[in-house]
Amino acid sequence: MTNGIEPGLVDCHTHTLPRRWLDLAERYGDDRWPVRREIDRCSADLFVGGKHFRTVPRTCWDPAARIEQMDATGVARQWLSATPVLFSYWAPPRQSAEMARHVNDSIAEMTRHAPDRFVGLATLPMGDTDLALDELERAVGELGLRGVEIGTNIAGRELDDPAFLPVFQAMAERDVPLLVHPWDIGSAGRLARYNAMYTVGMPTETAYAALALLHGGVLSAVPGLRVLLAHGAGALAWLLPRIDRGWATWPDRRCGAEEPPGVLARRLWADSLAGDEANIRLAGHRLGWDRIVLGTDYPFPFGEQSPGDVVLESSLDPGTKAAILSGNSAALLTAFPDRSHTQARTEVEHGY
Predict the structure, then answer these.
(1) C-alpha to C-alpha distance for 275 and 303, rounded to whole angstroms
(2) For the chain, how far is it from start to end, CA to CA, in angstroms?
(3) Please, which residues have CB within 8 angstroms of residue 168's CB and are 6 or more apart in sequence?
(4) Does the N terminus or the C terminus of the chain have fewer Cβ atoms within 10 A?
(5) pLDDT tens digits, residue range 155-201?
(6) Can you name the residues that pair with 123 across neighbouring β-strands?
(7) How far is Cα 215 from Cα 261, in angstroms, rounded to an integer?
(8) DSSP states of 79-98 as a string?
(9) What is the pTM of this model?
(10) What is the pLDDT of residue 172?
């Protein structure tokens, strides 16, 4: 036990970078591709568009260093997903697919280093349906990755775009979960003044992506799709009653949703990186306590630096804490059984 944290945590929201950097900026003469420049053996700088994006630690690509930190903070397992700057949805499809293959190979390499400690999530070239399906098949079928991460929009196209439906159907058929992570926020220029892209923009962007899945009919069309929304599902939990009111008020704008969004939302998942106990409680109330998993945004500084602390220090009952910190992740990773009895119990326990 370290800093009061019991070992055995399962962190479903962490990020990686490839150990061997694929410099597509140089290859294609386009500085929109991210560039990594080593500072020393422990860190590097990332540049995008010729500008400094962030400094990153070696734990992004060094599995041994990463496991050392996991051991120190009681984390038994991490789900590894690409740092969103690597999504590359803006690029020509075959270039985007080239980056996706490189990233997925890197994540697979990390998982092979310690398969009992890491679960790998693939990134896909979502701008081209056929290429995305091909890479999904390769990443899951050949590399053994066990889930997928995508952005909240694909180069400005919302997640209910019909071109993405075959990919979501293939994920459901492959029985792999989907992590939806905010990226490419259209109002980023307006939000720059307060660095509000991270504080206001990303939660709103995530809620809008969820709206596309709910209101746009994706969850109705693909009932087997398991979706994890990063950062506590963003602003979704707070907005759901208003979204339901809109669904009831304007039936002509339902866009394929066969049930009220608030009902469909109970098929979604959220990580615990919601900010505080009150927000975690709201997400648990709206989505269900069996749909909340630990997420820290490791290893980046705006995430949770001491994994699970907000949950552990909360007034939630011990069983709910244990479910969030480890138990619920198993259900997200594999098909989930009937939840009616669990849902009724947790609503009574928490007074909802």
Answers:
(1) 9
(2) 33
(3) 178, 218, 221, 222, 225
(4) N
(5) 999 999 999 999 999 999 999 999 999 998 876 678 888 888 888 88
(6) 149
(7) 6
(8) EEEE-GGG--TTS-HHHHHH
(9) 0.92
(10) 97
Reference 258, options 289, 304, 288, 221; nearest CA is 221
Q: Which residue has the tokens 């244990």?
A: 322
- Domains of the chain with CATH codes: 65-349 (3.20.20.140)
Q: Any bridge partners for residue 328, and if so which?
A: none
Rounded to whole angstroms, the Cα distance separating 147 from 45 reads: 28
Q: For residues 77 and 63, what is the distance between their CA atoms, to the nearest angstrom?
A: 12
pLDDT band at 348 (very low <50, low <70, confident <90, very high): very low
Q: What would the DSSP string read from start to end of 130-195?
A: HHHHHHHHIIIIIS---EEEEESSBTTB-TT-GGGHHHHHHHHHHT--EEEE----TTHHHHGGGT
Q: Please, which residues bridge with residue 293 across strands?
A: 271
Residues 6+ apart with CB under 8 A from 345: none
Give the model confidence (pLDDT) of 124-139 as tens digits: 999 999 999 999 999 9
Nearest to residue 72, comparing CAs of 87, 59, 53?
59
Give the closest residue to 119 by CA, choosing from 149, 87, 154: 149
CB atoms within 10 A of CB 335: 9
Query: Which residue is it, tokens 């009111």?
Result: 245
Cβ atoms 315, 282 nearer than 8 A:
no
Q: How many CB atoms lie within 10 A of CB 130?
A: 12
> Please, are residues 164 and 136 in contact by the beta-carbon 8 Å criterion?
no
Contact in structure between 313 and 302 (CB atoms under 8 Å):
no
